[in-house]
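ok so i was messing around last nite and threw this chain in just to see what happens. nothing serious, just curious
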Amino acid sequence: MSRAHLKFLSGNYLTYALKSEQSDGSARCRICTSNNDETIFHVIVACTALDESRNKILEEFKLLCTETKNRISYDKLNENPKNLCQFLLDPASMNLPERVSFLDPILPQMYKLSRDLCYKLDRDRAEMIQKLQLQ
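result:
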C-alpha cells in the first residue's frame, strides 16, 4: 500500500503530465471532464472523477485533525488546495504553515491515512483508465 504513496511523495507517480514531459502526448486528465492536466496535485485533490474515492478518507483526515495536539484546522487547510495536497501526502511536512508535530501520537494514524488515500486513488484511477481503454 505504501508504493503509490512513495511515488506521489517523490514526484515519480506516472501521471499524464509526466508522460507528456517524457514522450510528448497530451497531459490532459482522461477520467474527468475538467480538461486540466493530470498532475499529482490534480489526482490528490482536484480530479472530480475521484471525488467519491477521496471523500471518505478526507472525512477521516478532518476528524484526526481535531485530535492533533495543536488542533489543526482542516477547514483552513482546505482553503489552500496546494497546502491541503501537501498535508495529505505528508502531514508533518516542514513546508506547511500548520503541521502535525513529529512528537504527536496521532502522526502514525495520519500517515496510515495518507497511504490509504494514495492507494485508493491509484487503484480507482487505474480502473477508470482501463474501462476507458476498453470502450
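not much to say yet. The radius of gyration is 15 Å.
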